[in-house]
Amino acid sequence: MSVSTPKQQTSVRTPISKFQRCYAAAAVDRLIEMVRPQWGEAFKVADVEAGSGRLATMLSQRGANCHAVESDPQQRRTGHQATLEWPVNWLAGTATQLPLESSSVDLVTYGANFERLNRPRALQEAVRVLRPCGYIAILNNDRDLLLDPIQSQSEKMIRYYLPEYQQPKRCSDPRPLLEACGLFHEVVNFEIDHFIELEADVYLQSLYDQIMPTWAKDDRSTEPPEVLPLMSALAWQFASLRHLRLRFITRVWVARRN
Question: Going from the N-terminus, what domains does the chain have, and what CATH number goes with each?
Answer without folding.
Answer: 6-257 (3.40.50.150)
